[in-house]
Design goal:
The structure holds two protein chains of two kinds.
Chain A (H helix, E strand, L loop, with lengths): L3 H9 L1 H32 L10 E7 L6 H13 L4 E7 L10 E4 L13 E8 L3 H5 L3 E4 L4 H6 L12 E5 H7 L9 E4 L2 E9 L11 H4 L3 E5 L8 E6 L4 H15 L4 E6 H8 L1 H35 L1 H9 L4 H37 L9 H25 L11
Parallel strand pairs in A: 4-9, 6-8
Antiparallel strand pairs in A: 1-10, 1-11, 2-10, 3-4, 5-8, 6-9, 7-8
Helix pairs in contact in A: 2-10, 2-12, 2-13, 10-13, 12-13
Chain B lengths: L1 H14 L1 H29 L10 E2 L22 E2 H10 L4 E13 L8 E8 L3 H4 L4 E4 L4 H5 L4 E4 L1 H8 L8 E4 L2 E9 L24 E4 H6 L8 E2 L13 E9 L3 H21 L12 H7 L5 H31 L1 H9 L4 H35 L13 H27 L3 H7 L1
Parallel strand pairs in B: 4-9, 6-8
Antiparallel strand pairs in B: 1-11, 2-11, 3-4, 3-7, 3-11, 5-8, 6-9, 7-8, 10-11
Helix pairs in contact in B: 1-12, 2-10, 2-12, 2-13, 10-13, 11-14, 12-13
The chains are: A alpha+beta, B alpha+beta.
């Protein structure tokens, strides 16, 4: 198709042509960034977490007498383990994605201060015997804590247990000892030292820290005997039993501890709650993208329709001197393609610029390059779809129009 | 003349209903998106205590060991240790000063049949209520003497008073908090500054409902109530938080002027130097931001909310460009009409005004529909899980902003088409006819 006559005609309609280019450029820039943001959030919402998410229910008991904890916890656990369908139960200090953070700094050198550079921040999970089964942790290397290690570990008046064994996640092991075997290595928190006896598959922290997704998996597990800091009860069952177990556990434990406030939820609900803000942001972004594309499309339809009606006479003449319907159709399609191309070229540059700005002022990663051609393709397609209606109407203009005086 | 232009605009808008609807709708969507996100942004970044925020300051020092410290780069910590907070509190260098921590307060209702429940508790010092202009329904705050005696006194929020005492004057009655009886000395009127600035960095939420129970810090701690969030910089005995190497208290001081703030900051600096000399502290950095700069530096407004506002304006820009295009198409189509009007004596200015009036009408109609979209958007926000969800309502300034924005957007959009229209030369148009 000859494009010179199209360019000549566009030169005559410079301002409307520029407006279409501008609109496509803006839409392309916003679309690329919005889709990128959607992608990042969807990835976050689906971050893997190596516990039995579909089988865990969590009962939270607060407001009990801390002095009674040593006696209370076994009572509660016995009750929970006795319930129909319960496979395992344990008490823990906190859980992935429940926003209740418990963190420490770990160092590979003895006596390092917790503020020292080079120490790694990690979230701390403390659990009673059977915690690994209750959570459904996946052992990659080493062994689980044994009964003595659980029984001998106490918190005392510190936030760090006095045990000597820990389990770390794969990500934390790689962060602390890159390229080395983590098993048997020692970890120090000031004067305390712990030996890694197990490496487990990656488990998420209670809440995201600033250091990106690998940091989200920096977690360490300690065995612990019954202690007042353990307020959450993890109960594992078949997925279909969870609702009943939560209901019955809350009832039963409320009766066992009338002074306490007992709440229960499934882990799936906890995860949904944690990411609720993020998913509503995703839906809002999707909505904006759809509405924006619709507005852009209607803008193109409106302007092209105007062009078509303005050029009815010329179209008629072209048809009279031998142009087929296809020629007319292609004319408008090619014209739109040229405008879209100009638009997406500017749009891609703009999208890149916006991404750079967002990286500086917000927590945002660099947009992978393929988002740019992806956005461009979308706008090209949109332009072609939008122009189809007006172009078909143009193609339907009969040659006889040429002979009429408007 | 204006009335005539209005009539002309109305006729022109009626002539091409699809195009008009398209313009109005796209403007309305853009305006609605902007007003929705701006309302939320304004809510979240607002001044929680406008009459006083310029006089409230947040002292910050750094009790961490020297390891990891980079002079001039390491910012002081966001909370204080008990020792530092009490030292600064007792010097009483400022007009007023308070020290605050949060606690989970288990409230046991007097009736045996009702179950205990948790509510948000604040452990603080006597100046709290006067300093933050907290309004009382009944009674008042507690005194410094109560504090020194470790008296079990409490101020409760109106909503808790409604729940426990059906809204009656409960001053003098007792409330059971974390298994201890506290005598109620005051009941608050509804009070929930947004953001909950006095509790930021102490754990808990930044927006939403106000706190339920306020107790003297020393009394609550003596009864074993724990704080919500500890930041320990060394391993220590956390059963005695008062001496542990942990930061868990927020301090606010009220100063009369900026000059006083300079004086207070140098006092703070001297205090730290003296403590360094004693070997208790190691890092000399101090800070004394006023309330609003502090909130801004804490980036208390979630990133997503600011991104949404940016996105909405990007969207509005697209809508405006779209409207420019459609208006232009419309007015170019009317070249002949313009030619006739010009030939009959209308000036360029008259044509320009006529088209601007038409654009303005589209804007105002867009504004009306934009308002509908904004209300719809805010309704959606209220049904989101966010802390601030229930607070998202359109207020009068945003209502006005809606129409100002609509008018502004449409007039900007109308400029180019109106200019093109008034540049139409009458002769060729008449000849073509």
């Amino acid at each position: 198709m000859e494009i010179r006559p199209i360019l000549a005609s566009l030169r005559k309609h410079r301002i409307p042509a520029l407006l279409i280019v501008l609109e496509i450029a803006l839409a392309c820039a916003v679309l690329c960034n919005a889709v990128f943001m959607i992608g990042q959030r969807v990835t976050d919402i689906h971050l893997p977490n190596a516990i039995d998410e579909q089988g865990i229910s969590v009962i939270d008991i607060q407001g009990t007498d801390p002095k009674q904890a040593v006696d209370d916890i076994p009572r509660y656990l016995t009750f929970l383990r006795g319930m129909a369908g319960v496979q395992a139960a344990a008490a823990t200090n906190t859980l992935p994605l429940n926003s209740n953070e418990w963190m420490t700094s770990l160092s590979t050198t003895p006596d390092a201060l917790v503020t020292a550079k080079g120490s790694v921040n990690a979230s701390v999970y403390l659990f009673t015997r059977g915690g690994e089964q209750a959570l459904g942790l996946r052992l990659l290397q080493g062994r689980w804590f044994n009964a003595d290690e659980y029984a001998d570990s106490t918190l005392g008046d510190s936030y760090m247990p006095n045990t000597h064994v820990i389990a770390v996640t794969d990500s934390l092991a790689k962060r602390m000892w890159p390229g080395e075997l983590a098993l048997g290595k020692r970890v120090y928190v000031e004067k305390l030292s712990y030996t890694v006896v197990a490496v487990v598959a990656d488990v998420l922290r209670p809440a995201r820290e600033m250091d990106g997704n690998p940091g989200f998996y920096h977690t360490v597990f300690f065995p612990l005997s019954e202690s007042k800091e353990l307020g959450y009860y993890v109960v594992r069952s078949a997925p279909q039993d969870r609702q009943r177990i939560v209901r019955e556990a809350v009832q039963g434990l409320s009766a066992l501890a009338p002074q306490a406030v007992v709440k229960g939820t499934t882990f799936s609900e906890m995860r949904n709650k944690y990411f609720a803000d993020m998913s509503s942001m995703v839906w809002m972004l999707v909505l904006v993208c759809v509405v924006m594309l619709a507005v852009t499309a209607f803008g193109i339809v409106g302007l092209t329709s105007f062009w078509v009606s303005q050029r009815r006479r010329q179209i008629g003449i072209r048809r009279a001197v031998g142009a087929t319907r296809g020629h007319i159709l292609h004319y408008f399609q090619t014209e739109n393609f040229l405008l879209s191309t100009a638009g997406v070229v500017i749009g891609m540059a703009l999208a890149f610029g916006i991404n750079l700005y967002l990286m500086q002022h917000y927590e945002m990663n660099r947009m992978p390059w393929y988002y740019l051609p992806g956005g461009a393709m979308a706008l090209w397609l949109l332009g072609q779809l939008a122009v189809l209606g007006p172009a078909l109407r143009a193609a339907a203009v009969p040659p006889v129009v040429a002979t009429r005086s408007v | 003349m204006f009335g005539y232009y209005l009539d002309l605009a109305l006729r022109s808008l009626k002539r091409n209903k699809v195009l008009t609807t398209l313009m109005v709708l796209s403007l309305a969507l853009g305006i609605g998106a902007c007003i929705t996100t701006l309302t939320v942004l304004k809510l979240l970044s607002g001044d929680p205590i406008p009459q006083k925020s310029a006089r409230l300051f947040y002292p910050q020092i750094d009790p961490l060991p020297l390891a990891g410290y980079v002079a001039g780069k390491t910012r002081p910590q966001d909370t204080l240790t008990y020792v530092d907070a009490m030292n600064l509190l007792h010097v009483r260098k400022a007009e007023r000063q308070v020290v605050t921590a949060l606690t989970q307060a288990k409230v046991t209702p007097p009736e045996r049949a009702r179950k205990p429940f948790f509510s948000d508790g604040v452990m603080t010092t006597a100046d709290f209520f006067a300093m933050f202009d907290v309004p009382f329904q009944y009674g008042s705050g507690w005194s410094a003497a109560d504090e020194n005696d470790r008296a079990r006194v409490a101020v409760i929020a109106g909503f808790l008073n409604d729940k426990l005492f059906d809204g009656a004057n409960s001053v003098g009655k007792t409330i059971r908090v974390n298994e201890h009886d506290y005598r109620i000395v005051g009941v608050l009127k509804p009070w929930s500054p947004q953001p909950r600035f006095y509790a930021h960095m102490l754990g808990g939420h930044n927006y939403g409902n106000g706190d339920a129970v306020f107790m003297p810090l020393l009394s609550a701690r003596a009864d074993g109530m724990d704080d919500e969030s500890n930041n320990c910089y060394a391993v220590g005995d956390v059963s005695k938080l008062e001496t542990a190497p942990c930061m868990w208290l927020g301090m606010w001081v009220e100063l009369r002027s900026a000059l006083d703030a300079v004086a207070y900051k140098s006092f703070l600096s001297n205090y730290v130097k003296q403590q360094i000399a004693l070997g208790r502290l190691h890092r000399p950095e101090v800070a004394l931001p006023a309330l609003m700069p502090w909130l801004r530096s804490m980036q208390i407004v979630p990133d997503d909310v600011r991104l949404q506002a940016g996105l909405a304006f990007g969207f509005l820009l697209i809508c405006v460009v779209n409207t420019v295009g459609l208006l232009l198409a419309k007015c170019l189509r009317r070249s002949r009409e313009i030619g006739v009007r010009r030939a009959l004596g209308a000036s360029r200015w008259a044509i320009f005004a006529q088209f601007m009036v038409e654009a303005g009408m589209i804007g105002l109609t867009g504004g009306v529909f934009g308002l509908v979209f904004a209300e719809l958007g805010l309704w959606a926000v209220r049904h989101q899980p966010a802390q601030y969800a229930s607070l998202a309502h359109l207020d009068l300034p945003m209502f006005l902003a809606n129409f100002v924005l609509a008018l502004l957007a449409s007039l900007v959009a109308g400029l180019l088409p109106a200019w093109r229209a008034c540049m139409v030369a009458p002769a060729p148009q008449l000849k073509a006819a």
